[in-house]
Amino acid sequence: MNIAPMLLATTLGLTACGPMSVERAEDACFERARLAAGPRGFVAVGGGSGGVGTKMRLAISTDYLQRRDPSALYDACVYQKSGQPPRQPLYTRRDWKG
Questions:
Q1: Which terminus in the chain has less CB density within 10 A, N or C?
Q2: CB 79, CB 89: distance < 8 Å
Q3: For residue 63, how far is the Cα from the chain centroid?
Q4: Residues in Cβ contact with 87 at an 8 Å cutoff, skipping those fewer than 6 apart
């Protein structure tokens, strides 16, 4: 029995469990904070020779339903994933639209 592939898979699996960089954690946690601020989605209606078509997508997070503060959620998420606080508060990020 060749144990090398099993050992490699175990090592790679454990590496994925370690803390990530604060930059990656901020990116990963940003979407969760954005969804905690409110539902996101779109509705599209179009028509053509084949008739009328509609499309809808709606995303509502449990964080939003439980009225969690997006900034506090972001801070805790980044700290949990990286072991460090965010480099800047959520509400001061240029890409935050709340």
A1: N
A2: no
A3: 12
A4: 22, 23, 26
Residue count (the chain) = 98
pTM (2 d.p.): 0.69
In tens, the pLDDT along 19-55 reads 899 999 999 999 999 999 998 888 888 888 888 888 9
Neighbours of 37 (CB within 10 A): 19
pLDDT surpasses 90 at 12: no
